[in-house]
Design a protein that fits this description.
Elements (H helix, E strand, L loop, with lengths): L10 E4 H17 L6 E6 L4 E8 L2 E9 L8 E4 H14 L1 E7 L6 E6 L2 E6 L17 E8 H12 L14 E6 L2 E8 L5 E8 L1 E4 L5 E5 L1 H8 L6 E7 L4 E5 L2 E8 L4 E2 L4 H4 L6 E3 L2 E6 L2 E6 L7 E9 L6 H13 L4 E5 L2 E9 L6 H15 L4 H9 L1
Antiparallel strand pairs: 1-6, 2-3, 2-5, 3-4, 4-17, 6-7, 7-8, 9-13, 9-15, 10-11, 10-14, 11-12, 14-18, 15-16, 16-17, 19-20, 20-21, 21-22, 22-24, 23-24
Helix pairs in contact: 1-2, 1-4, 3-4
Length: 385
């Protein structure tokens, strides 16, 4: 994306930079059928070009070469301008760009040996662009294989098997953990269910924070697909913005329109407000007279099971199981099950939803206290056997 900038003439844009912008706009166009998407062109304090697209799910800024001749304020270029510029630069690998802005409606001038164009530009309010530098605000970074990341984004972004309009897509939670990059998707409203995807990563920075932020997989896929390096660095800042690095240079910054949610580091941190006690079986939380155990099922490291004992000495007879089914139909939280001759209330929380763990423990304890008086008949069945 390098470019030389003769300030007394038009700025020089390379074909590769224009192709990256066109690739991003193509993703937006597939979401916004019947419209003509555009891109905001601006420069930062180092005179680097910023190409910014705003979507219903967030904002994406691609970084280009240096400077824009004649630019005095951010301007919006329509898709037709980008496509024509791409065609002009196809043979010579470059073209000249100049903004003409006398205070009224701005225009863009494109020039190359094969042709040229002068286009009026649409009037749209400027959008804020996040600084694209290696700042102390970067919470954590992960270096991953580019092909792995592309596959991850494609799998998560197409959970229904077909594209979904950006306004209808559920947020994708991107999280960087001590040894991996994870994306969680919820396609329940589109018949696809929930899924969590993970790839290994070389992680550095403030891993104690473990932030989860929201990304648009379709747009991030468009960015990563334009990178030639075998490895890609993804950095998540405390403000929720995501930077994608191409080698040492920032390739793009994604800014979510939803507030990022800090993830607890561990179940100990998730349950800290409930003062859990560590036991060989797991963490035990007491809520009044009720004890709740939080443990990891064997063979399911991605799951946490929450159980509380309701009664002992319950025999698995037909009439007991029938009454147990009736109880399950009437409760609103978790389920009741027999573990040997012990009657328990049980539910689970996925490993990527630790922020809901404390509320789940409290909910199950309250449910157990409410149904406790109803389980006496099941114990009586066991005594009469």
């Amino acid at each position: 994306m390098e470019a030389t900038e003769p300030m007394d003439g038009p700025s020089v844009l390379r074909w590769t930079e224009l192709h990256a912008v066109a690739r991003l706009l193509d993703r937006v166009q597939s979401d916004e059928v019947g419209t003509m998407p555009g891109v905001q062109l601006s420069v930062d304090h180092l005179l680097r070009r910023h190409w910014t697209v705003s979507t219903p799910t967030g904002r994406v800024t691609l970084l280009g070469g240096g400077g824009v001749a004649g630019l005095v304020r951010p301007v919006w270029l329509p898709l037709r301008a980008i496509l024509w510029a791409l065609e002009l630069a196809r043979v010579d690998d470059a073209l000249g760009l100049r903004i003409r802005d006398g205070g009224g409606a701005p225009s863009v001038e494109l020039s190359a040996p094969r042709g040229s164009a002068l286009m009026d530009l649409p009037a749209r309010p400027a959008v804020e662009v996040v600084a694209a530098e290696r700042l102390p605000g970067a919470a954590v970074s992960a270096v991953v294989d580019r092909r792995d990341l592309e596959a991850l984004l494609l799998a998560a972004g197409r959970g229904t098997g077909h594209p979904v309009h950006a306004r209808d897509r559920a947020p994708f939670g991107l999280s960087i953990e001590p040894d991996s990059l994870t994306i969680g998707a919820d396609w329940s409203n589109h018949g696809g269910g929930r899924a969590t995807y993970r790839i290994v990563a070389d992680v550095s920075g403030d891993t104690e924070g473990r932030w989860t932020t929201c990304v648009d997989c379709e747009l991030m896929f468009a960015i990563v697909g334009g990178i030639a390096e075998e490895c890609v660095e993804v950095s998540v800042r405390a403000d929720g913005s995501v930077s994608v690095f191409d080698g040492e240079w920032v390739r793009a910054v994604l800014t979510p329109l939803r507030t990022p949610v800090p993830r607890p580091l561990s179940i100990e941190a998730a349950l800290a407000s409930l003062n859990p006690v560590v036991t060989p079986a797991g963490l035990v939380v007491r809520r009044g007279a009720t004890s709740v155990l939080v443990s990891a099922p064997v063979g399911r490291p991605d799951l946490w099971r929450i159980t509380t004992e309701l009664a002992r000495g319950v025999e698995p007879q037909v009439d007991v199981l029938t009454e147990l089914n009736q109880l399950n139909m009437g409760i609103g939280f978790g389920r009741i099950a027999l573990d040997g001759d012990v009657l328990v209330a049980v539910t689970e929380v996925r490993g990527d939803q630790l922020d809901a763990l404390a509320d789940t423990v409290i909910g199950l304890a309250q449910e157990a206290a409410a149904i406790g008086p109803l389980v006496g008949s099941l114990v009586a069945h066991g005594d009469s056997a």
